[in-house]
Write a structure and sequence with these properties.
Number of helices: 10
Distance between the termini: 11 Å
GO molecular function, one term: hydrolase activity
InterPro entries: AB_hydrolase_1, AB_hydrolase_fold, Sec-Metab_Biosynth_Hydrolase
CATH topology: Rossmann fold
Order of helices and strands: EHEHEHEHEHHEHEHEHH
Protein name: Alpha/beta hydrolase
Organism: Amycolatopsis carbonis
Pfam families: Abhydrolase_6 (PF12697)
Number of domains: 1
Helix content: 25-40%
Number of strands: 8
Shape: globular
Structural class: alpha/beta
CATH class: Alpha Beta
Radius of gyration: 16 Å
């Protein structure tokens, strides 16, 4: 039995209506799914990347967690990397799920394709509160292309605006890259085009290679496979998180 802490990605929160935790619990695992600061309906959006990280370390402390598998989806990869810097003795393994692994000293947004780097600040400037809401067309094709149109629309309604500020702060990941004490896995979804497939600089494998030695687990599915095939993802997370 493992303890999993699942850190969601952009536009999501800890109450995301997928069944991954249920499938993991059926296998006997303990599952936690905290909401990162600045996310969810009605949450204040004035937050920093340090605030993101603190919201997870505070959750870990409140629930007295240790020896857990820490999973980060999408930009959640930047969060779990910095959580591991702060509480390395509590994390058994890091699992990056089609996630950003930012190079030291870069911004999360630097690691995204040029189109997003240009679009997101424009959307934030138009929002009135410096947040980004992903256009449905991008969600439908790049993020959840393995869903039918009805499911794509249903899941889009679950999303909330994403704070821009934490994604444009330069991150000091010196400790993360200096130590490999916490084992690392990368889960790669083969039908995910949120980042350009095969892009040598911004693709998922480019992010994964920054981990050094890591376990690679692959599956078919989009960036939002937790919403389209949660049973398969739960199985793959179990493989990624095992000793």
């Amino acid at each position: 039995m493992s303890v999993f802490v699942l850190v969601h990605g952009s536009w999501h929160d800890g109450s995301s209506s997928d069944d991954v935790p249920g499938y993991l619990r059926e296998r006997g695992h303990e599952v936690h799914r905290p909401t990162v600061a600045g996310h969810g309906a009605g949450a204040p959006r004035e937050v920093t990347h340090d605030g993101w990280v603190a919201s997870i370390t505070d959750y870990v402390d409140r629930h007295d967690l240790a020896g857990f598998v820490l999973v980060g989806h999408s930009w959640g990869g930047s969060v779990i990397a910095r959580v591991a810097e702060r509480v390395p003795d509590k994390v058994r393994r890091l699992v990056f799920l089609n996630a950003f692994v930012p190079a030291n000293g870069t911004r999360v947004l630097d690691n995204a394709p040029a189109a997003y780097q240009e679009l997101f600040p424009i959307l934030a400037a138009q929002s009135g509160d410096n947040t980004v809401m992903l256009p449905f067309e991008v969600w439908r094709d790049a993020f959840i292309g393995d869903a039918d149109l009805a499911r794509a629309r249903e899941t889009y309604e679950m999303l909330t605006p994403e704070p821009l500020v934490p994604t444009v702060e330069k991150l000091d990941l010196t400790k993360f890259y200096a130590s490999a004490d916490v084992p690392r896995s990368y889960v790669l979804c083969g039908e995910d085009s949120a980042l350009p497939p095969g892009d040598p600089e911004h693709g998922y494998l480019a992010n994964a290679r920054r981990l050094g030695t890591f376990r690679l687990v692959t599956l078919e599915g989009s960036h939002e496979v937790m919403l389209t095939n949660p049973a398969l993802l739960a199985n793959k997370l179990e493989l990624a998180g095992r000793d």
